[in-house]
Queue: 2 jobs
Job 1
Amino acid sequence: MWVYEKKLQIPVRVSAPDPRMAKYVITQYGGPEGELSASLRYLNMRYTMPTGRAKGVLTDIGTEELAHMEIVATLVYKLIEGAPMEAIKAADLGSHYADHGRSLYWENAAGVPWVAAYVSATDDPVADLHENMAAEQKARAVYENLIHLTDDPQVKDVLRWLREREVVHFQRFGETLMYVEDFMQQKKVF
Amino acid sequence: MDTRNQVMMLRQIQQLSFVAVELQLYLDTHPEDQQALALFNSNHTELIQAVRKYEQAYGPMLSYGYSPNMQQCWSWVDSPWPWEIKY
């Protein structure tokens, strides 16, 4: 079950509204390598993992990704907040605005809505943990792309922090994979 | 609306909470680490203390009964919500 904490995991600031950047950042909200994909992928895989450690890691990282999703949402919200209509249209956010106004939505930078095909689950723990490690690398890479797309130092700070978390998650999944592989080997002996 | 005190308290809680998350993930893959376990528990005490102090002024931080509501009315629904806070 989930309990909500009424706080962000880290402070989120923007130096000024920037709907153009909001259009790019939203991809980590609802895009293929975004936080929604990450949290749903891990929270779904945990049900059939063979060891308690794996269930723990997937539950805990999956939950942290929900907190990251909230951070990305806050970034998008603050980047659009107060921006006049002319800026929204100039940023090529008119299509988003037509369907959603200033509301957030789960879509990538091109406006393509989120789809479950972004996540996989094979029930093979070795395959699934490799998928997770790859996902963390891809998320890291996308945060680096986003950092290149802005000059706002406050936005960069948030993106850099999120990028660092991906590296730590990658590490934890690597450790989990080692334990799971040991566990699978032991099973084979008997 | 003076949010400077609220922001200051939130920043402290965010730091303590981050230590808790890091230790949680570390312990998931190193469950035998006694030192980390001890750190986790002492951090827990500090975190709860900071959270309760915050809640006295600004209302419950956790939902579903894990935080008390110490104000006269249901302050959970009060602004600012996390994405509205001006840091």
Note: Chain B touches chain A at residues 7, 10-11, 13-14, 17-18, 21-22, 24-26, 28-31, 59-64, 66, 76, 81-83, 85, 87 (CB under 8 Å).
Job 2
Amino acid sequence: MAQMAATVRVKVLFFGRLRELIGLAEESPELPEGATLAQVFERYAERFPKLAGFRGSMVVSRNQEFAPWDARVAAGDEIAFLPPVSGG
Amino acid sequence: MSEEDKIALVREVIDGEALARLVRAGLDGATVAFDGYVRNQSHGRATDYLEYEAYEPMAIAKMKEIVAQIHEKFRIHRVAMVHRLGRLEIGETSVFIAVSAPHRGAAFDACRHAIDTLKKTVPIWKKEYFADGAVWAEGELPPIPPNAKSAS
């Protein structure tokens, strides 16, 4: 019997040039439970190929803290893809 | 961070003088203020105006972390740290930081540390508009924490 993969609902946000590039600021996808942030990014890079080239010039946050790419998502997480910051 | 500190993101004009007054108190002897404002050119190209956007809740959290850090590191009294968002014209203040302290050295050091750290870690983005187009400012990549596997 095929096993149903568990999924979790999270919120994903894009800012600055990344938001502009793909025309998406926010959505609430269902992702495989335990997916890494790198895998979440890969899903978006497949959907929006223009994103792929930005992987090296961005950081990711999980629940409003900068996070390593191998951190795993949990239900209700808020994940944001952030280009280099330029406040001040 | 103390209850006397002021940390905010605003969309209206920043009143720097009012913020500098706000941090003054009887026990202090010095206030150092940093007033960052919009330059009329970028890499030799005449700027028309700027637009700032932020990941607002995270930006506020990171600004609070910076203020907590400078309280820990330096002998200072009060801090005001305000960043403006939205459209800004040439010469308008985008960020204002005021730090009061009993003695000037700590106020200078803390204010410098605060603006340098803000520019590296607070999720705010600037888009520069020129007569013939617009670009996102290059910016700095915030340091990322070590891999989840190696941290425990």
Note: The helical segments of chain B are 16-22, 56-73, 104-121.
